[in-house]
Backbone:
């Protein structure tokens, strides 16, 4: 896979506080990457460094060789609290953004109309931005960030401040755009990251804890499992030993009269186990279905 | 270069929409009108104010046209300069604080283009305001008092305009570094006043200060002959360049 941007040991301190410590990660082409972490993990600082708004105190950023040296030419950025000139209309904001990014007047006008339409702001395009709602500003922010069709789109907390409808709108726009460009978004909500991203960079206290694909993480975080405890009897021990042979069970740990079975087919396994327990007259005392979710894993990783 | 043009259009449009392009000229026109009118009608005004014994004779010589225009520039020197400082005190710091400076600078825009567009807009807007105010003063002086030496009026006007632009440039540079708009306005206005004061105190030694442009313009109008201002103009030009460098550094250094 091609990396369009590689961060090598990035650090940034403000006075004595180190906001980012030796962060290394890679941003692959056409990926949707979530920068996940609790508040104060250094997400915004990292994104600001990527966007070129901050210089790292140490460490290097390496861009893919085929791209122009000035990152800002092929990058779009939306800060956490996007701010616009309140006296400009939505359309003027788009046009100004397009022209500043180096588009010609006609090209900027064409892209503006296209994106205003996509952002659902066509009817409000002639109104001043000062009168826009938070959701509209966020959508305008997204639209102006991609006006020059960037290769890399950096979004700082794009959905955190939005109501459920605004959140859905933004996620839909992103789902469309991630086909065309690399998207890096920061969030402290795992659920948002899970919804659209296919890769995760977990940050905590300024450090990158892990970077991996969403699927791999989900798998590594743990399969669903059954934990069964039965009343002590010969019959029960025999029954539990027999659970090993169930085709759905992927791994079984058993002691005398209790066991823990991991599985990929939870429902089928649960059915079978309960049925056979009834048939054999095993007296169950505990029957628990558990799943170590990404949420769990996230909490653990952040607390450690 | 294209970015510079786009930003300049943005600055001018902003000045129009936020009313700066209306109140700044209005201040200058008002200041420009007061002087010739009050010079002409001062005796009448005093007489109408009453409280004078019967038969009192008021003799206030009506000043020469050049003197009146010189006084107009004196008026501009306090309130007009203050208006410019107030109009531009937050031009960079305000955009930095509310994040719009970042909005511009994450795009492929050179900080120099950003600052230069502000400076050009300042030159145009201050030029427009000053020309209107000074023009109004000249017209009314012509109407009420008499004809002034046109070459002298225009020459002094240019000198004074250069001084106003210099003060505006100080304000821009200050607003790039000082977070509080009031702080920026105060430092720029204060520096301009100090320059004028020092120039007045050490007339012979410090005639190369930019404030020489200001006094040379006024002296030229009142006395009819201007002192040499070429060194001062040179120093002012260098000062503007230096201040612009400072402003670019400021706009660049403290990105949010």
Residues:
């Amino acid at each position: 896979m091609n990396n369009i941007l590689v961060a090598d040991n990035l650090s940034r301190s403000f006075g004595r506080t180190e906001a980012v410590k030796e962060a290394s990660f890679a941003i692959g082409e056409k990926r949707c990457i979530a920068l996940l972490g609790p508040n104060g993990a250094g997400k915004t600082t990292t994104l600001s460094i990527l966007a070129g708004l901050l210089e790292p105190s140490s460490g290097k950023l390496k861009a893919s060789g085929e791209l122009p040296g000035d990152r800002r030419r092929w990058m779009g950025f939306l800060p956490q609290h996007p701010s616009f000139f309140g006296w400009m209309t939505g359309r003027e904001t788009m046009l100004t953004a397009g022209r500043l990014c180096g588009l010609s007047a006609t090209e900027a006008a064409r892209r503006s109309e296209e994106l205003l339409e996509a952002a659902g702001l066509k009817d409000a395009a002639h109104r001043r931005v000062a009168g826009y709602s938070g959701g509209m500003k966020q959508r305008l922010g997204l639209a102006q960030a991609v006006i020059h069709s960037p290769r890399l789109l950096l979004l700082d907390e794009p959905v955190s401040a939005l109501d459920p409808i605004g959140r859905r709108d933004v996620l839909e726009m992103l789902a469309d755009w991630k086909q065309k460009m690399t998207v890096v978004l920061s969030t402290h909500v795992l659920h948002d990251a899970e919804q659209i991203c296919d890769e995760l960079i977990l940050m905590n206290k300024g450090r990158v804890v892990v970077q991996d694909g969403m699927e791999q993480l989900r798998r590594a975080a743990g399969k669903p499992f059954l934990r069964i405890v039965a009343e002590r009897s010969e019959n029960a021990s025999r029954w539990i030993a027999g659970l090993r042979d169930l085709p759905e069970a992927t791994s079984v740990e058993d002691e005398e009269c209790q066991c823990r079975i991991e599985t990929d087919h939870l429902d089928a396994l649960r059915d079978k186990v309960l049925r056979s327990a009834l048939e054999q007259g095993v007296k169950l005392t505990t029957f628990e279905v558990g799943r170590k979710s990404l949420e769990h894993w996230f909490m653990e990783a952040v607390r450690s | 270069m294209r970015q510079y043009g786009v930003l300049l259009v943005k600055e001018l449009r902003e000045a129009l929409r936020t009313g700066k392009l209306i109140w700044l000229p209005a201040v200058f026109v008002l200041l420009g009108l007061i002087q010739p009118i009050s010079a002409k009608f001062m005796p009448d005004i005093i007489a109408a104010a009453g409280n004078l014994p019967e038969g009192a004779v008021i003799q206030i010589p009506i000043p020469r046209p050049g003197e009146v225009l010189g006084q107009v520039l004196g008026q501009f020197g306090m309130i007009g300069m203050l208006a410019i400082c107030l109009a531009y005190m937050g031009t960079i710091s305000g955009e930095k604080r509310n994040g719009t400076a970042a909005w511009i600078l994450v795009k492929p825009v050179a900080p120099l283009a950003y600052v230069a567009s502000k400076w050009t807009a300042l030159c145009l807007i201050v030029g427009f305001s000053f020309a209107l105010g000074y023009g109004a003063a000249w017209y009314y002086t012509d109407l009420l008092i008499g004809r002034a030496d046109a070459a002298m009026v225009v020459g002094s006007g240019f000198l004074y305009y250069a001084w106003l632009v210099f003060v505006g440039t100080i304000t821009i540079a200050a607003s790039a570094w000082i977070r509080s708009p009031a702080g920026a306005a105060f430092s720029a206005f204060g520096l301009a006043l100090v320059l004028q004061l020092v120039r007045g105190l050490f007339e012979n030694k410090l005639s190369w200060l930019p404030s020489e442009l200001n006094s040379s313009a006024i002296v030229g109008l009142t006395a009819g002959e201007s002192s040499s201002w070429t060194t001062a103009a040179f120093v002012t030009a260098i000062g503007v360049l230096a201040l612009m460098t400072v402003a670019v550094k400021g706009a660049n250094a403290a990105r949010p």
User: Anything to note?
Assistant: Chain B has ten helices and no strands. The mean pLDDT of chain B is 87. The two ends of chain B are 24 Å apart (CA to CA).
